[in-house]
């Protein structure tokens, strides 16, 4: 059995007029496709119970704050509903002593997933409050079909700030029932001594013995790392820094980490305020693959210096990872006009980047790095697939496409040139 040639290109972009939030839409498990709320909205049925909580918003922060420091707080909002009501505005009020400098989603809160409503616009920062949306109770643009929204807020903390701090959140429903289903809740931010590390995990082992895995950190199963399928990736997650970590790859539905497929001991831990990509790659099985697990053993490939956003507005930052155990040394060229070498002599397991390119359409050629023979050529349009997590040369991506571009951890779609 040969493993299919897989080359990852990670593309991060910040565009004028786009949002700095990554969102994921989860399909209703009882339906073959996601609910088309726009069709339901036109009927506008009455809410027979008259309940006030049609939307169900759960928000959390992934890290604590450090007194006297300026840093990001990383938020996750999960938005669901009881009657297909959407959210048309969100506000967050930060505590005194925590100065709000900026947010990553400074154009829109996040994408709307259907034609029933436009995305809700960023209103700006007013003192301790930041808000999005118009609260017009008409076709809210923040989708609530089990949608996840990831964004960050940059804050400066007073040196004397101490103890748990509370962020007040207000989410307003769009009036799908008799009255808008508004919701108020709080998010607690705890004091900490060190900033965390940020980690994205990508499953790129084609061995059927590791087709679905649990990835545990110090025995615990973090969100989004349960039942990770081949060719999928997690969002960027926060993990403790400056402390020993043991990362294990375990069989799916594991109860603990006592029978791991692979163990990565990080005795020195991860650096504070550093961002990493960890790629699971290689072969587990003793037989059935060429090269086998002696030549290309299963491994967690750690890349430090990853980016969640482009360094320059209007650019895409491209990172290439060679993840095919049976592919030769390769070069990657941009060939839309004059052939330009982007990545040179990538061997299996190599990660190179970042190349910073202006937003535009590109043609990428994967060539044998020894003799220069073309292996394949692909079209790359950064506008086609913003918000997707991870794409390969055979047009794989792990997260659904989003209707609007976003600037948080964006990746571009690669399409074979002959299919255009």
Explain what this protein looks like in three dimensions.
- By secondary structure, the protein is an all-beta fold.
- The chain has 2 domains: 7-15 and 195-419, no CATH class; 22-189, Immunoglobulin-like, CATH 2.60.40.1510.
- Helix content is 2%, strand content 41%.
- The protein has one helix at 37-43, and strands spanning 7-13, 22-24, 55-61, 70-81, 87-93, 98-103, 122-126, 129-133, 147-157, 165-173, 183-189, 197-203, 212-217, 228-229, 237-239, 245-251, 262-266, 275-281, 299-304, 315-322, 330-334, 340-346, 351-358, 362-368, 374-381, 391-392, 413-416.
- A hairpin with a 2-residue loop joins β7 (122-126) and β8.
- The longest helix is centred in the first third of the chain and has 7 residues, at 37-43.
- The protein is globular, with a radius of gyration of 22 Å.
- 45% of the residues are buried.
Q: What is the straight-line distance between the termini?
A: 31 Å
Please tally the helical runs, counting DSSP H or I stretches of 4 or more residues.
Answer: 1
Strand content: 35-45%
Oligomer: single chain
Whole-number average pLDDT?
A: 79
How many beta-strand segments? 27
Fraction of helical residues = under 10%
Please give the radius of gyration in angstroms. Answer: 22 Å
Which of globular, elongated, flat, extended, rod-shaped describes the shape? Answer: globular
């Amino acid at each position: 059995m040969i493993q299919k040639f897989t080359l990852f290109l990670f593309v991060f972009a910040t565009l004028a007029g786009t949002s700095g939030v990554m969102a994921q839409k989860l399909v209703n498990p009882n339906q073959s496709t996601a609910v088309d709320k726009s069709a339901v909205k036109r009927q506008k049925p009455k809410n027979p119970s008259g309940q006030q909580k049609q939307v169900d918003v759960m928000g959390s922060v992934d890290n604590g704050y450090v007194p006297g420091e300026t840093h990001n707080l990383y938020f996750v909002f999960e938005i669901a509903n009881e009657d297909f009501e959407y959210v048309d505005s969100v506000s967050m009020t930060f505590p005194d002593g925590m100065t709000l400098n900026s947010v990553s989603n400074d154009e829109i809160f996040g994408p709307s997933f259907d034609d029933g409503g436009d995305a809700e616009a960023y209103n700006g920062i007013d003192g301790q409050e930041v808000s999005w949306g118009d609260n017009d109770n008409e076709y809210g643009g923040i989708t609530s079909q089990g949608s996840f929204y990831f964004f960050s807020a940059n804050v400066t903390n007073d040196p004397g700030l101490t103890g748990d701090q509370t962020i007040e959140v207000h989410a307003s429903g769009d009036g799908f029932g008799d009255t808008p289903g508004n919701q108020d809740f709080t998010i607690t931010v705890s004091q900490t001594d060190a900033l965390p590390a940020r980690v994205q995990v990508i499953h790129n082992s084609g061995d059927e013995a590791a087709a679905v895995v649990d990835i545990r950190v110090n025995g615990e199963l973090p969100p989004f790392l349960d039942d990770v399928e081949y060719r999928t990736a997690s969002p960027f997650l926060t993990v403790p820094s400056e402390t020993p970590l043991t990362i294990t790859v375990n069989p799916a539905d594991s109860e603990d980490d006592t029978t791991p497929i692979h163990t990565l001991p990080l005795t020195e831990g991860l650096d504070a305020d550093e961002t990493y990509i960890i790629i699971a790659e290689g072969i587990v099985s003793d037989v059935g693959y060429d090269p086998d697990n002696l030549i290309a053993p299963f491994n967690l490939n750690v890349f430090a210096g990853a980016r969640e956003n482009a360094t320059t507005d209007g650019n895409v930052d491209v990172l290439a990872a060679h993840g095919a155990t049976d592919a030769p040394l390769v070069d990657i060229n941009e060939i839309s006009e004059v052939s330009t070498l982007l990545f040179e002599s990538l061997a299996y397991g190599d990660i190179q980047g970042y190349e910073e390119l202006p937003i535009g359409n590109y043609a990428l050629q994967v060539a044998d790095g020894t003799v220069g023979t073309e292996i394949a050529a692909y079209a790359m349009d950064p506008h086609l697939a913003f918000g997707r997590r991870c794409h390969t040369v055979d047009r794989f991506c792990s997260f659904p496409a989003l209707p609007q571009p976003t600037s948080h951890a964006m990746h571009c779609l690669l399409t074979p040139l002959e299919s255009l």
